[in-house]
């Protein structure tokens, strides 16, 4: 447990920050908040305030944990430290973006926010292999091969995480916040398991 806390202190601090944000905002919000919008932007259902403030930070951390599970294989060998740092940084930011995206949806941004974040994440995820190839070509030309293993691992994992998180955001936005919360969590875990299985097949 001590090793886990040492390695994952930033995500744990982020979770504490999200709950502190929830506690600070709770007195100023009504007991029930909009939880689902139609495609033309009308609110058609509401959810309890506690769902917004307390469940979404846990959802963000569950998504982070799912992506981290897919990262384990890529944390060893070659130059592990830069890959480890970039992996955890990108996944922490990704979890925070997912949380803020869902929170923004509850606060009224609705469909457009989730779709925009999801589409951008998916595009970057799809483009990541080309980015890696271009960087490797430049690195090879400059004789910087020492940086390749770490850089490739971290960026490949980032692309895979985005390919999980992007469609989750798109699907969640189309389904609506109320339906998408458990669906997004299940999809994130399933996607991470699929990435993990794919990583084993690459060996």
Give the topology, please:
Layout: H1 2-7, H2 9-25, E1 32-37, E2 43-48, H3 49-71, H4 80-106, H5 111-141, H6 148-175, H7 177-201
Textual characterization of the structure:
With 203 residues, the chain is mainly α. The protein has one domain (2-26, 47-201). The protein is 77% helix and 6% strand. The protein contains seven helices and two strands; from the N terminus they run ααββααααα. The chain has a two-stranded antiparallel sheet with strand order 1-2. A hairpin with a 5-residue loop joins strand 1 (32-37) and strand 2 (43-48). It is globular. The two termini are 29 Å apart. Mean pLDDT is 63; it is low at 1-6 and 73-80.
- The amount of beta strand, in percent, is 5-15%
State the helix count.
7
Strand order of the largest sheet: 1-2
Task: Label the overall shape.
Answer: globular
What's the rounded overall pLDDT mean?
63
Helix content: over 70%
Rg value? 18 Å
Low-confidence stretches: 1-6, 73-80
How many domains comprise the coordinates? 1
Distance between the termini: 29 Å
Q: Could you say which structural class the secondary elements and strand pairing correspond to? A: mainly alpha
The count of β-strands is 2
H/E element sequence: HHEEHHHHH
């Amino acid at each position: 447990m001590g090793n886990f806390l040492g390695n994952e202190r930033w995500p744990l601090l982020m979770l504490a920050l999200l709950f502190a944000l929830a506690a600070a905002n709770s007195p100023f919000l009504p007991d029930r908040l909009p939880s689902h919008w139609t495609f033309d932007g009308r609110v058609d259902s509401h959810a309890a305030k506690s769902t917004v403030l307390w469940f979404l930070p846990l959802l963000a951390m569950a998504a982070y944990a799912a992506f981290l599970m897919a990262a384990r294989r890529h944390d060893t060998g070659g130059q592990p430290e830069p890959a480890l740092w970039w992996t955890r940084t990108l996944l922490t930011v990704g979890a925070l973006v997912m949380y803020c995206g869902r929170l923004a949806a509850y606060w009224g941004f609705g469909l457009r926010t989730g779709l925009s974040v999801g589409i951008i994440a998916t595009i970057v995820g799809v483009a990541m292999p080309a980015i890696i190839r271009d960087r490797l070509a430049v690195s090879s030309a400059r004789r910087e091969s020492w940086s390749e293993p770490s850089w490739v691992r971290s960026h490949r994992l980032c692309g895979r995480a985005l390919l999980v998180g992007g469609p989750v955001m798109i699907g969640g936005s189309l389904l609506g916040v109320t339906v998408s919360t458990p669906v997004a969590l299940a999809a994130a875990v399933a996607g991470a398991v699929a990435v993990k299985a794919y990583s084993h097949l690459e060996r």
